[in-house]
Amino acid sequence: MTLYVYVEPDQRRREELGPAFREVGCTMLTTMAELEAHLPRYPETLLVILGAQVDLDEALMFTAYQRLQRPLIGVVLIRYTLDPGVVVQCLRSGVREVVEEADSEGLRAATVRSVDLSRALGTTMRSVTEAAPYARVVTVFAGKGGCGRTMIAVNLAVALASAGRRVLVIDLDLQFGDVAIMMKLSPERSIAGGLAMAGRLDEQGLRSLVTPYRPGLDTLLAPSSPAEGEQVRREFVVELLDVARPLYDFIVVDTPAVVTDQVLAALDMSDFFVPIVTPDLPTLKSVRLTKEMFDLLDYPQDRRLLVFNRANTQVGLSPAEVEEAVGMPFAVLVPSSRDVIVSVNQGEPITITDPLHPVSRAMSDLADRCTGVQSPPVKQRRFFGRKTKA
Question: What integer pLDDT is reported at residue 252 of this predicted model?
Fold first, then answer.
């Protein structure tokens, strides 16, 4: 069983390292193209080591993509020298360890830590699946329009689905929903199509309402007219979620900028609550009121994942001041970028078009928080014939 892969373009280096690595079942490859062909055939792979001659940009693109597609795979990158700026760039892209080529002991230690982390993550993911046989509901909410709520919901759903999970996005902004526009979907099917099945909705009925977006990601779009949206009752929202939960791993609910009976139904059934805040006083006030509402409804504080959108906008309010004003800690900070506006106008989520983008990385971090993955404990084990402390 192939668990470890070493990509080393330099033949001399491959000949030097080959015997030791093959002894533990490591496959030696020459190019990134060979690696791309290798991974689909060996999905059990836990570790990829990229040699010093592998192009940095190519290594970062590969890592960012694998972080979404195969989150259990750890990437250890070797460089001739360690430049602090390059190291930071690598770690932000998802590279687990960056090691200097001459540091053979450091490479051994890095591989041990990465493999142990992958195995711990695998155990944790299996535990989460066993403990939660029904989908986790993640409701994105903002009490003020223009906060980027739908953008966050759509890109969070894409990040979750890219990690191999079955995801449904529900557009609960029943009058003016934008999920269809942001994902370039035709709203031929919508929630309103299920009203005739209210009280007797089943799996087949639900599947007749959803619009597939890509493998593993479905959407349940808002009605095409506000009049149809007014006919959707709280009880039908509960029924939709009840029927959908056994079919998916995650359900991401986008909501309007008002608290309706339908929104409260989704919040009451939610596992995670994602309020959105931006650095302006009206939004700070609305999020503060949202927190008070969550407190009154006794929603668990550890399941509230506050997202600070446009966090780097220079408008006289620092992140610390915003955090203090709303009375909740940030789960993730999403930077402001014109690339987001471009992606919205093109109907292509930025998490798909540019997985290396800082906004995409923030969405991946938020997805990680929703999965509840924890860091593994420190342990000792043997690797390449050496006993190393992780």
Answer: 97
pLDDT per position as a tens digit, 307-353:
998 887 766 677 788 888 888 888 999 998 999 999 999 999 999 99
Structure tokens at 305: 């994942």
Calpha distance 263→149 (Å, rounded): 14
pTM: 0.63
Q: Is the pLDDT reported for residue 387 higher than 70?
A: no
Using a 10 angstrom Cβ sphere, with 0-12 exposed, 13-18 middle and 19 or more buried, the burial of residue 85 is exposed
The domain in which residue 341 lies consists of 133-354
In a domain, 179, yes or no: yes
CB-based contact 357:161 (threshold 8 Å): no
| Whole-number pLDDT of residue 254 | 96
Report d(CA 339, CA 228) in Å as an integer. Answer: 34
Residues 54 and 198 in one domain: no
* Shared-domain flag, residues 173 and 316: yes
Q: In angstroms, rounded to a whole number, what is the distance separating the alpha carbons of residues 205 and 73?
A: 38
